[in-house]
């Protein structure tokens, strides 16, 4: 499991992506509709720029991890007593699960 993205709520995703490029030297990793990520060139972790209309739900940290085998990772975490808010689910954009820490902070697990 690897840390993948951290969500940042912004007023305008395209405008913010340009700012992060020009001011901090980041590169745009993904730009598919509302899904825009930027990162420093040598870093694996990216910021997911969530446009202002898109507020994070209560508990959602906006932090995601990736894994090659989500079902195996989910089971390993469950065996350690980690509670899942959303079990492994497949959508048209990918396969994911959501788990929480003891304080209710939620984290996304996304299959690579």
Chart the SSEs and their pairings.
Blueprint: E1 2-10, H1 13-24, E2 27-32, E3 35-39, E4 46-51, E5 60-67, H2 70-79, E6 83-91, E7 94-100, E8 106-111
The percent of residues in helical segments reads 10-25%
Q: What number is the mean pLDDT?
A: 90
DSSP E strands, number: 8
Taking the alpha carbons of the first and last residues, their distance comes to 10 Å
Strand content: over 45%
- Give the overall silhouette: elongated
Give the number of domains: 2
CATH topology of the largest domain: 2,3-Dihydroxybiphenyl 1,2-Dioxygenase, domain 1
In the CATH hierarchy, what is the class of the largest domain?
Alpha Beta
Mind telling me the C-alpha Rg? 15 Å
Order of helices and strands: EHEEEEHEEE
Query: How many distinct helices?
Result: 2
The assigned structural class equals alpha+beta
Q: Can you tell me the residue ranges where pLDDT is under 50 for at least 5 consecutive residues?
A: none
Strand order of the largest sheet: 2-3-4-1-5-8-7-6
Instruction: Give a short account of the largest sheet.
Output: 8 strands, mixed
CATH superfamily of the largest domain: 2,3-Dihydroxybiphenyl 1,2-Dioxygenase, domain 1
What is the level-2 CATH architecture name of the largest domain? Roll
